[in-house]
Each structure stands twice: as structure tokens, then as C-alpha cells.
Amino acid sequence: MSTRPRIADVARRAGVSVTTVSHTFSGNGVVAAETRERVRAAAHELGYRPDVLAQGLRRNRLSVLALVARPLDRIAPDQLTGVDYFLRLAGAAAMAALDAGYCLMLVGDPARDDAPSAALAAEGILLTEPTLDDPLIDLCERIGTPCVTVGLPPRDDGTWDDDAPGHVGIETERLTVDVLEHLVAAGAREIAFLAADERDEWSLRSVEVYRRWCAARGMPARVVRHVDSIGVEAGRDAVDRWFPPGSVPGVDGAPDALFCLAAAPAVGAVARLRELGHEVPGAVRIAVGSDAEEARAADLTAVDLQPEELARRAVTTLIATLRGTDPPALPPGVGRLVPRGSTAY
What we know:
It comes from Tsukamurella pseudospumae. The protein is an alpha/beta fold and about 350 residues long. The protein folds into 3 domains: about 5-60, lambda repressor-like DNA-binding domains (434 Repressor (Amino-terminal Domain), Orthogonal Bundle); about 65-170 and about 310-335, Rossmann fold, CATH 3.40.50; about 170-305 and about 335-345, Response regulator (Rossmann fold, 3-Layer(aba) Sandwich), CATH 3.40.50.2300. About 40% of the residues lie in helices and about 15% in strands. The protein has 12 helices and 11 strands. Strands 7-6-8-9-10-11 form a 6-stranded mixed beta sheet, with helices on both faces. A 5-stranded parallel beta sheet has the order 2-1-3-4-5, with helices on both faces. The longest helix has 17 residues, at about 200-215.
């Protein structure tokens, strides 16, 4: 499949620098007439078109911030009730930006070939759920656009740098342990974990914390990573794997508690458990890693990641970077466990 030509492709075809191509189309700098013609001919041959809007925004500094919530790219509209974390974060980020004299655009990943180039016209970018080897972080570094992330991308060696600049922490370690300890306090002896098959911090690091926690207590770690990490069927499939016919929760390897990162799989797990004759919370306790309307409606214990506060912190940090001032001190403690009926004891 062909990809959209980039300015570097034009420069290569014309035998000039990227700066020369940029000056040819922006009118900045001095470019010889013959060189301009060669650049324009190369652009025409490749089908390259400069983005006039992006150029204008960069020159005029219209105080625009861009928000990239990468998981929204793979979520269907009818699934948004299960991931209202992103809707809450986007709304709060927009209000925080407005209060500071900026406007906020919700955009697709500008690092993708099919992304509108106007997204890169923003003065700064907010990125939620950065992934391993995140291409947008690399792109922002190359073009000099400030970027603040909500959550961390893992380092090359798979570890995490909680003191890294340019990010707002989501406290994965503390919140994961809070959920596990709550399940134990509710009577759980064997906890299984339904995780997302993704490469962001919440998906990867929560599993790491869970495995360490289990090892420290001599508890077997049971992890299922599901590709459809936010769908109801993910929970049903996991229950069928963990609870074979005739199994008894907490006996012979069947868990008596489930930790599901997203709400919809937890709802599916509850339905399937009850079909199998296992009561929730009587026989199996369930907790969710990200609160949502589906979790509240089903009375499921969940983690409120407090996305509004994360958004405010991210916007404040990004604007401080743009203005050349020190970012604000960000004390820990964002995110809390909300106990509900699914872990009652």
C-alpha cells in the first residue's frame, strides 16, 4: 500500500535539503528560481502537497494544543461507554486549555501516514497512552514540538523512569496493588488478571506489578491478554478458560477473584460466571481497572483514575514548557479505588 509523500521525499527527489523545500512552499528564506522550479516539479511528480493551514498556524501562533488519545483510534462509537476515561480526560483538557488562553484539538496520531498534517501545526501535543517505541514522541523530538504524555512509554530495556520529564504519572503500581490488596481483604485467595494486549503503561506495567505481587505471596499468576481488550466477549472467553466445567472457585486452580482492566470485559465475565452457577460476589469477586458507566451500572468495584485531574496536570505542564517556565510540582495521589457490590464482604 502506498504512503503519502513527505517533505523528505521531495528533498531527496530534488537533490536539496528539507529546509529548501520548506522555504520553497512557505516563502521564507531565499531560494534560487531554478531550485524552486526543481522542487515544485519533484513535488508534482510525487503528489506532494504542502499544508497551507499548518504553515499558517505555525507562523501566527494561534495558541493551539493538540490532544492525541491513541486508544480512541481502535474503539467503535458503541464501545465508548466502557472507556469514558478518555471522554472525561478530553473534556477536562479542553477546559484547562481554554482557561489558560489556548484551544484544544482532538486529533488522530500525527505520526501516521494518513493523518492530517494540520495536527502538527499545534504549538504543543498532549499524548495519552504512549506506547513502546512511540513514533509520535520520536516525531515531536525531531521537529521540535513540545509533547507531554499522560503515562510513560517503557524504556528500551522494559523498565520505567518515573522521574522522566514531560509526563504526568498515572500511578500504575500503587493503584494495581490497591486493587489486589482489596480483593484479598474481601476474601480472595486466587486472583486472575484479564489484561489488554496493548503496549501502553497501564496494560504492560499493571501485569508486571501483578506478577511481582503474586510471587511475593506465593500465589500463582494467571494472566490472559485479550486482543479485544474492551469487549464483553473478552470477559466471557477468560471465564471459560479459567473455569472449566465442574470447577469450584478457589479450588483446583480455579480463581476466586478477577481483576479486569476494562469495564466491558468485567461485565461479560459476571454474566458468564452466573451462567455457570458462580455467584458474584459470593463465589467470585471482581474489580475493574478503569471506572466507567458500565462498571457503575453493574455495581463493580473499580479504579477511578481521575482523568480530569490528569488532564489539568498535563495541560499545565505543557503550557509551562511552551512559556519556558518551570513545570508545577505534581504531588502523588491521583486515582482511587471505589469499592462496590462486586467485592462486598
